[in-house]
Write a structure and sequence with these properties.
Layout: H1 10-30, E1 36-37, E2 42-43, H2 60-69, H3 73-86, E3 96-98, E4 101-103, H4 111-128, E5 132-135, H5 140-143, H6 150-156, H7 159-167, H8 178-181, H9 196-210, E6 220-228, H10 231-236, E7 244-251, E8 256-261, E9 264-268, E10 293-297, E11 303-310, H11 318-321, E12 325-331, H12 340-347, E13 352-356, H13 359-364, H14 366-371
Parallel strand pairs: 5-13, 11-12, 11-13
Antiparallel strand pairs: 1-2, 3-4, 6-7, 8-9, 8-10, 10-12
Length: 373
């Protein structure tokens, strides 16, 4: 008679599992994983206060802390995301892999949000007594939708309603055809921001509505910084196997940049900050990152003052525009304590007002609505 195979008793298996969880929790308490995760580009949960066990449940702060500080968390997150990708569950990730690039999921249609912002934009420009232009490019995912699986591509169709509304706006600038015919060149593979080529196409799109003659690429000073891994890759949870090369351009002439944040003002004589390319937020190579208000002054530029309301999408574009405007006053509502008309007072007489926002910001950023007055 065949001897029965030995197996771990159910009670022992449960006990072993509890011991492993307890050990992981003790490890998390004694050997914390730091305050910030460069892999995920976010701050990790703080040490919890006194847990609330009155309802026989684990305190949420404790759960978040243990989840964030469990041993080898980065490797576990990467393994989980990798398994989802390899097993065809790409759309379960917070960012999707398409044709060798990591893209943001589609932005849900919200006509009311867009119409409200467009109305506010018009009123702010009216207060400035200047013409206004809106630039909101198609997302990387939208441009690559023909290379997606059917389910993912259909999800992006919801963005179409947003674009139809923007295309109907007479103040919206249209991106050149090259933006659509070569989408792989317009965005970084690991990030939702434009490459230099994408920024240059935006620069071309704005030439006519802002009234300048675009310069050839050879007229700009170009610098490159390798090893860039963007925030879209970090959102996916996938291991950092991809990387890009940041390519920056600006006019080769004297410039002054004044950055005003809630902590005060800082002045620089440059727009590109190579030392930032080596940090976890490599995109901060442009303009030293995001600021509440920026004033860029280039005395040898031919035009007057341009007022720009923006998100980070415009950071790589402003150095190109500084070729033509002696003064650019740029506001990011997420970091600025004032309202939009405060920038108009600081700018004085404006040649034009420009709005540069990603589709996600235009639909979902409530700070724009709160401060666009």
């Amino acid at each position: 008679m065949e001897k029965p195979k030995r197996r771990l008793p159910d009670g022992a298996a449960v006990a072993l599992g509890l011991v492993i969880l307890l050990a992981a929790g003790v490890w998390a308490l004694l050997c914390r994983g730091g305050e910030f995760s460069e892999q995920e580009r976010r701050y990790l949960a703080d040490f919890p206060g006194t847990p609330d066990v009155s309802a026989w449940k684990t305190d949420r702060e404790t759960e978040r802390f243990l989840a964030d500080h469990i041993p080898a968390r980065g490797a576990l997150v990467a393994a989980d995301s990798g398994v989802r990708l390899l097993t065809g569950r790409n759309s379960e990730l917070e960012a999707w892999v398409v044709d060798g690039s990591v893209v943001e999921p589609p932005v849900k249609a919200d006509a009311a949000a867009i119409e409200k912002k467009l109305s506010r934009f018009a009123k702010v420009a009216e207060a400035a007594g200047a013409p206004w232009v809106l630039l909101t490019p198609r997302t990387h995912g939208w441009l690559l939708r023909e290379k997606m699986t059917g389910v993912m591509a259909r999800a992006f169709e919801e963005e179409r309603e947003n674009y139809d509304l923007l295309d109907a706006c007479p103040n919206a600038a249209a991106m050149p055809e090259a933006f659509f015919s070569e989408p792989e060149k317009m965005y970084y593979r690991t990030d939702h921001h434009w490459t230099l080529e994408g920024a240059y196409q935006a620069y071309l799109a704005l030439a006519e509505p802002l009234g300048y003659e675009p310069a050839e690429p050879a007229r700009f000073r170009v610098s490159e910084y390798g090893g860039f891994r963007g925030t879209t890759l970090s959102r996916s949870g996938l291991p950092p196997l991809w990387q890009d090369t940041l390519v920056c351009a600006e006019p080769d002439s004297a410039v002054t940049m004044t950055a005003a944040d809630r902590e005060g003002e800082t002045k620089s004589n440059r727009l590109i900050f190579p030392e930032r390319a080596e940090g976890w937020d490599g995109y901060a190579v442009y303009l030293d990152g995001n600021h509440g208000t920026l004033v860029i002054e280039r005395p040898d530029a031919p035009e007057g003052t341009l007022v720009v309301y923006k998100d980070s999408m415009a950071n790589c574009l402003l150095p190109l525009l500084s070729m033509h405007f002696r003064r650019i006053v740029a506001v990011d509502a997420r970091y600025d304590a004032g309202v939009f008309t405060d920038a108009l007072a600081r700018a004085g007489e404006a040649r034009a007002v420009l709005y540069v926002y990603s589709l996600d910001s235009l639909v979902n950023d409530t700070e724009i609505i709160r401060k666009a007055r």
